[in-house]
Amino acid sequence: RRYVRILLRNAPSQVLAVYPQPFDVEQLPFANVARLMAAMPVPVPAILAHSNELGILALQDLGDVTLQAHLGATTRAEHAALYRQAVTLIARMQQRGRDLASDRYLPYGIAFDVEKLTWELQFFVKHFLEAYRGAALSATERESLGVELLLFPEELAAEPRVFCHRDYHSRNLMLHDGQLYIIDFQDARMGPDTYDLVSLLRDSYMDFSEREVDELIAFFLALRGVGAEGEGADMQAGRFRRRFDLMALQRNLKALGTFGFQTTTRGNPVYIQYIPRTLAYVRSNMERDARFGRLREILSTHVEELR
Fold it and tell me: Are 204 and 121 in contact (CB under 8 A)?
């Protein structure tokens, strides 16, 4: 898709999403998911008009300020408030997503299943480890790596599924009139309840302290009705954090695969700058949990940042 801003004389500007071919708006994933998210409701750009024949959507113009761009100009308090707002939207999408479940909406027919999650990790091995870092894996390493990586999809796919935006991070949240709006949601699907929170808090484009991550996870759990006190609450929070860390490792490895693919296959080096932060997230998760020890041992042979 290409995006073009249209300035009108006596009306607010609009953004045209220009597709490479005609479409049926009733079958278009963006329009289908937009209807679902508007019903939740969560703030998404309004579809103002469309042309099936020309392959064009006219969208509400949200401006140019992403959450990523805005945070450099905010106070610490404003930063925290925006992220609480972003976390609140995740909780609403999950709750209302359950209420609105219907085969009329595309996300309920696709999911982060074993096949999809396995493909993402293989994508990491092919495009980051081998293509970008030039790793020459021995047969033994390849077999051991396959065994370790297989644990991710099986555990994650077995979790109860909720509505997931799929790419919920600081570049896909726009600040407009003091409100966060969600964009780039056309690939939404069902998945673990940790997925969007991981996308937000282990964002390859933003730095977070562990204290900030802990506080926002606690805020999310409070929205879900998990209290901050009591043995039962502590156990639930601990189990959630364990699942969060596994999901984070999966998603960050997948992101490295994407960055490697963009660099080596697409010839687009812009994502190289985000690799160090993403590797730091991977190393932090591996250090936190002994179950990742063997995986770290294999990967660190070829990726020195993980040693």
Answer: no
